[in-house]
Amino acid sequence: MQLVDSKPTPDDRHVCVIWLSRAGLAIGADGQPVEAESSPASAAAQVAEKHLSTRLFPHERRGGRSRLQINEIQSLRHGLVSGPDMKGVVAHHESVALITPVFDGRLPDIVTEALTKFGPYDLAGITVMPVVTLADSTGEVGDALLADLRAALPGAELLEPLVLLGEKPEEIESQLTPCLDDLIR
Description:
With about 180 residues, this protein is α/β, with parallel strands linked by helices. It has helices at about 40-55, 85-90, 110-115, 145-150, 170-185, and strands at about 15-20, 25, 35, 65-75, 80, 95-100, 125-135, 155-160, 160-165.
């Protein structure tokens, strides 16, 4: 990944994936960090990272300045552990995929906190694609979620939320990848 200091040129795409981790990372049997408890949001983030890396950085392309940034929000008992670098998102990205569960039709407080901490931010000119998982919800996405998103992401162009069904990457991939392709066009 190259560091960039401006918005992309027409041939470049700068995308940030922000996702909510259920429990953060733990050390696996091989001594490497692994997710402590997997979730549909983390499965969707894996699919997004793999797909966007392939699309933004094809082998035959040389000299491009595209950027893919992956930010994890860890939701632990004691609150927000790490959040997205919203200043960097605002300065350098034209598109954001926000992957989060919804709780009773609302944006989780920990996600709102991560998006607004040290803000407010003016996200004018940035397209945000909300990607929601329903595993921990009543199964409804409605006006309350949209109001939460508008409040947390002022000025952003909010796309219609993509509601993902399934919990594993192979269940999510066919639903998510066409929308990611549309996001980076």
